[in-house]
Amino acid sequence: MTHHNSRNQTTVHGKGKLALSLAMFFVLILLSVVYLSQVNKLIEKNFDLRNIRLAVQERQEQSQKLMVAFMQAGSLSSLEEAAKRLNLVEIGKTAYLNIAPDFFALYQKP
Amino acid sequence: MKRHFGNWRFYAVFLLAAIATGVIIIRLFCLQVLQHGSYTALAKDQHELLQQLIPRRGEIFIQEKGDTWHPLAVNRSYQTAFLVPREVADKEELAQNISPLVGIAADKILEKLADPNDPYEPLKSKLDDETAQKIRELDLKGVYLINEGWRWYPQGNLASNVLGFVGMSEEQKIGQYGLEQYYENELAGQSGFLKSEKDALGRWLLMQDYNLEPAKDGANLYLTLDQNIQYVVEQKLKEVAEKWAIADGCAIVMDPQSGAIRAMASWPDFNPNEYQKVEHINDFMNSCTQKTYEPGSVFKPIVMAAGLDTGKISPETIYTDTGSVQISGYTIKNALEKVYGVSTMTKVLENSINTGAIFAERATGNDNFKKYSEAFGFDSKTGVDLAGEAVGNLNNLKTNREINFATASFGQGISVTSLEMASAISAIANDGKLMKPYLVEKSVDPDGQEKLTQPQLIRNIISPKTAGQLTAMLVSTVRNGYDKIKLTGYFVAGKTGTAQISLEGKVGYSDDTNHSFAGYAPAYNPKFLIFLMIGKPKGVQFASGTLAPLFAEIARYLLDYYEIPPEE
Asked: With an 8 Å Cβ cutoff, are B205 and A46 in contact?
């Protein structure tokens, strides 16, 4: 009886060990999967970041080209050429209006 | 015998093993101990990224009536082509293909490709997009394109002698001449660095730890120069330069009440985007601040200021001009040997009478004249924020020779810069207050912090009463002296100067002259001062013929631009 009990205890103890081992194995597997997926995500984000950086760089280049074109068009030498092309007339003598001192509303603020 | 043979083999094998082990240990010692440093560096180089972070250079802006700002110097990236000679298989073919695109002779390119172990040879920088695209399409092995930041001046030649440029010095980009040099520290910013791991292609591994010291960008500068005034003044100076074939020239427009410079044009100018193409280094010089010359009669208001302020003369003081003055064996005559007879001091300025200036100087006294000349700042830098400012020379006034004081009274035998002269006349316009001229109105740090430049009074030279009397004399000079200045309805003060140019390395004067003109308006509440100078004009004798009309044109433009209504 004593021997029988001892065998049963050993079996139960063995089963417990096996269950614990299996549990640890699956936990390890699970942790590995989680770790791999996290690393994978990190690498994926790394690539995303790189692509975004490239896209930003590309847009910066486009922006710079537009800025350069804008500044060239707005430079005074370009404006002078445009004025000549459009036959714009130079301003002549400026005439200033004389405001009568007694005309209060226009002469000064109340 | 057999056993003995076996022992021998054992020892031989043992010895060989021991030698091999020893060799390996020695080799490992060499690699790991003696050459530890170099291999560590090599390993680090393979996986460690240490990148210098280049700060963005501050940009420079020019104003339009103080409320709108336009870019004058900005940063942009260009494509730069470089060669890796060790990767090039057919050097001849590569040189022939790329030569017409980059504008470099094929044999010069072959010279760059001569060393088969050479890992890097710069080919051409600042390529335009079209050329870069053509090079890319050729897909040549050993030819690479990279982006490289360079300074770009969108207005081309505008204010080039004020700006300077960013050039290469000891393989570093650095500001040279003008504002770019003067404000190098503020504009350049401070470099940073990035230390991290890199992948096999040398790219930054973002998932690794890193050590980042960000670069500090340079400050932006906002100038006192007004874009429209600067452009008009440059165009007018260019017209005069071409008409009279001058050697050099300068035009300054400044606010006499603050010292703010609204335009500073120098001839010859250059395109800072192509500074390498400038043939003569003198073209980079700013004639307004880096050239000294004998000013001539434009200096006469200074002797009058000294005389009036000391009370030794008044505008109505009378003397009799006989056409010449004898001093220490020298005879000094008026221009064109004219004789004016009885004249007032006002007439002396109107007719620019040399003997009258000598009379005023003698009445004032040599010590007083020297003291006032120094107070007006002719023997010291104005302190303008530009690199390489020259300084005038009043050494002749330190000799106590009577003849030197006499010639100095009409601006010969002493030297000044145009900016010194402009500042001095500005002081007369500004109730006798000498202001420090300046070009940067404010600087803005990358964090948005503004640093405004406050107008700075250097000293009071003459009383407001003297300044008023002198202004009235200069108004009279413009009205009665120069028929080419027609600015009806405005009080305009001004004076010309035509100075002989001394012979280089010899005693005496050449036939060449320097012309100058200083004037301000409205005379009794001046909004602007104009100073003009041209060197060695051909086919014209006096500044009244070259610069008086130019002054009138610029003054007319400024009166309209600032919307200043007529006073009478």
From this structure: yes
Q: Does B22 touch chain A (CB under 8 A)?
A: no
Q: Looking at CA atoms only, how far is residue B278 from chain A in angstroms? A: 20
Per the structure, the complete domain to which residue B189 belongs is given by: 52-114+121-138+145-218
In a domain, B166, yes or no: yes
Please give the pLDDT value at position A101.
Answer: 66
The domains of chain A are located at 2-107
**Final residue belonging to a domain, choices B179, B202, B218:** B218
Domain check: are B152 and B299 in the same one?
no
For A46, the closest chain B residue by CA position comes to B206
- Judged by a CB distance cut-off of 8 A, whether residue B158 touches chain A is yes
| ipTM exceeds 0.90 | no
Q: State how many domains chain B has.
A: 2
> What's chain A's Rg over C-alpha atoms?
43
Predicted structure pTM score: 0.83
Contact assignment for B560 to A49 by CB distance below 8 Å: no
The answer to whether the Cα torsion of B556, B558, B562, B567 is positive or negative is negative
Q: What is the CATH number of the domain that holds B523?
A: 3.40.710.10
DSSP E strands: which ranges in B19-109? Answer: 48-53, 60-64, 68-83
Distance from CA of A97 to the nearest CA of B (A): 9
Return the ∠ at Cα B77 (arms to B75 and B81), rounded to 5°.
140
Contact (CB<8Å) B77/A61: yes
